Amino acid sequence: MRKGSCLCGGISFEIDGEMNPPTACHCSQCRRQSGHVWASAVVAQDALTLTAQDTLRWYRASTTASRGFCGTCGSFLFWKHDDEDTISVALGSIDPPTGLALARHIFVADKGDYYDITDGLPQRAQ
Length: 126
Fold this sequence. Notes:
Blueprint: E1 2-5, E2 11-15, E3 23-25, H1 28-34, E4 38-44, E5 48-53, E6 56-60, E7 65-70, E8 76-81, E9 86-90, E10 104-106
């Protein structure tokens, strides 16, 4: 069982299930919303239980996906594709120890010009 929350605590959650190996996303949307790289892990949606959600807001980021964030503190917590029964959860919102380790980078063709990726993990251009 993992637990997590936004910065102000208006959104809190529990994850009772396996999480896929975490990914760092460098796409322009994730960088703009998070302020840098967004690291997340995918979990089955029915494994995620919201224990507090009064401040949860959803932003329609594209025609196929939405991003969940806290309307009070602005924490970007979730990414949900419309046609999938999974949800990506921000690694930084999960209470330690997470027991997770970053596995790969995606959308590296869109990464910011102010940093390099030098950790040796697999990189996918898109």
